[in-house]
Amino acid sequence: MRNSIYFHIFKGKKYFVAEGVGVPIVTQGKNLDELSKNVREAVSLYIENKTTKKEFSTKHPSIFMNVEMGLNYA
Hints:
This protein is α+β, with helices and mostly antiparallel strands and 74 residues long. It has helices at 32-48, 50-53; strands spanning 4-11, 16-20, 26-29, 62-67. The longest helix is centred in the middle third of the chain and has 17 residues, at 32-48.
Protein backbone atom coordinates (compact mmCIF):
# COMPACT_ATOMS: atom_id res chain seq x y z
CA MET A 1 0.00 0.00 0.00
CA ARG A 2 1.20 3.48 -0.85
CA ASN A 3 0.94 6.60 1.22
CA SER A 4 2.77 9.09 -1.00
CA ILE A 5 2.62 10.35 -4.58
CA TYR A 6 5.50 11.95 -6.45
CA PHE A 7 5.16 14.53 -9.23
CA HIS A 8 7.62 15.83 -11.78
CA ILE A 9 6.90 19.50 -12.59
CA PHE A 10 8.12 21.38 -15.64
CA LYS A 11 7.28 24.54 -17.53
CA GLY A 12 5.39 23.88 -20.76
CA LYS A 13 4.85 26.45 -23.50
CA LYS A 14 2.18 28.33 -21.53
CA TYR A 15 1.61 26.51 -18.23
CA PHE A 16 3.38 24.58 -15.52
CA VAL A 17 2.67 20.84 -15.88
CA ALA A 18 2.69 18.18 -13.15
CA GLU A 19 3.03 14.52 -14.12
CA GLY A 20 2.57 11.78 -11.55
CA VAL A 21 5.45 9.33 -11.22
CA GLY A 22 4.01 5.83 -11.43
CA VAL A 23 0.41 7.07 -11.36
CA PRO A 24 -1.70 8.27 -14.30
CA ILE A 25 -2.22 11.82 -13.01
CA VAL A 26 -1.42 14.90 -15.11
CA THR A 27 -2.55 18.46 -14.47
CA GLN A 28 -1.45 22.02 -15.21
CA GLY A 29 -1.63 25.56 -13.85
CA LYS A 30 -0.76 29.12 -14.87
CA ASN A 31 1.57 29.45 -11.87
CA LEU A 32 2.96 27.19 -9.15
CA ASP A 33 0.24 28.13 -6.64
CA GLU A 34 -2.52 27.21 -9.09
CA LEU A 35 -0.65 24.05 -10.05
CA SER A 36 -0.36 23.00 -6.40
CA LYS A 37 -4.14 23.43 -5.96
CA ASN A 38 -4.81 21.46 -9.15
CA VAL A 39 -2.47 18.64 -8.05
CA ARG A 40 -4.32 18.28 -4.75
CA GLU A 41 -7.66 18.17 -6.56
CA ALA A 42 -6.41 15.63 -9.12
CA VAL A 43 -5.00 13.38 -6.38
CA SER A 44 -8.27 13.57 -4.46
CA LEU A 45 -10.26 12.57 -7.55
CA TYR A 46 -7.82 9.76 -8.35
CA ILE A 47 -8.07 8.30 -4.84
CA GLU A 48 -11.89 8.53 -4.82
CA ASN A 49 -11.97 6.10 -7.75
CA LYS A 50 -13.00 2.69 -6.40
CA THR A 51 -10.37 0.80 -8.40
CA THR A 52 -7.46 2.94 -7.17
CA LYS A 53 -8.69 3.41 -3.60
CA LYS A 54 -7.17 0.04 -2.63
CA GLU A 55 -3.66 1.22 -3.63
CA PHE A 56 -3.41 3.72 -0.79
CA SER A 57 -3.21 3.22 2.95
CA THR A 58 -4.65 6.70 3.61
CA LYS A 59 -7.20 9.09 2.11
CA HIS A 60 -4.63 11.90 2.35
CA PRO A 61 -1.29 10.73 0.93
CA SER A 62 1.81 12.91 1.08
CA ILE A 63 2.47 14.74 -2.17
CA PHE A 64 6.07 15.37 -3.25
CA MET A 65 6.77 17.69 -6.18
CA ASN A 66 10.08 17.89 -8.02
CA VAL A 67 10.44 21.09 -10.06
CA GLU A 68 12.58 21.16 -13.20
CA MET A 69 14.27 24.54 -13.70
CA GLY A 70 16.03 25.55 -16.88
CA LEU A 71 19.20 27.60 -16.88
CA ASN A 72 19.26 30.76 -18.95
CA TYR A 73 22.75 31.83 -19.91
CA ALA A 74 23.44 35.36 -21.07
